[in-house]
Amino acid sequence: MADSTFTFRVDDELKAAFAEVAARQDRTAAQLLRVLMRDATRRWHDSQEHDSWFRGEVEQALGEAADPGVERTSHRRVVSSWQQQRADLERRAAGRTA
């Protein structure tokens, strides 16, 4: 991997503060900048990967929602099921404390 120079302007106060932060981590400002650049690049790639996955999930869900062959469950049925599960859990919990 070839190295190259990255040049940019920054005000003197920020440069001094950054150099101090780097020194407190036993690093040079250049070393810390490389760490920050790698981290920013990794986070961006990770967010793009997640975005791509999420868009695929949404497309799949929209396709399923538009498919007349997909079995539907009513809201009332789902609520009833969760209420039953909660009641069962509460009965079991009450039996343990008795």
Give the terminus-to-terminus CA distance.
68 Å
Q: What Rg, in angstroms, do the CA atoms define?
A: 28 Å
Mean pLDDT value:
94
Query: What is the helix/strand order?
Result: HHH
Number of strands: 0
Our estimate of the beta-strand percent is under 5%
The amount of helix comes to over 70%
Biggest β-sheet, characterized? none
Number of helices: 3
Q: Can you tell me the overall shape? A: elongated
Question: What order do the helices and strands come in, and which of them pair?
Answer:
Layout: H1 12-24, H2 29-66, H3 75-97
Describe this structure in words.
It is a single chain. The protein is mainly α. The chain has a domain at 12-67. It is 76% helix and 0% strand. The protein has three helices and no strands. The chain has helices at 12-24, 29-66, 75-97. It is elongated, with a radius of gyration of 28 Å. The protein starts with 11 loop residues before the first helix and ends with a helix. The mean pLDDT is 94.
Summarize the structure.
By secondary structure, this protein is an all-alpha fold. The chain has three helices and no strands.
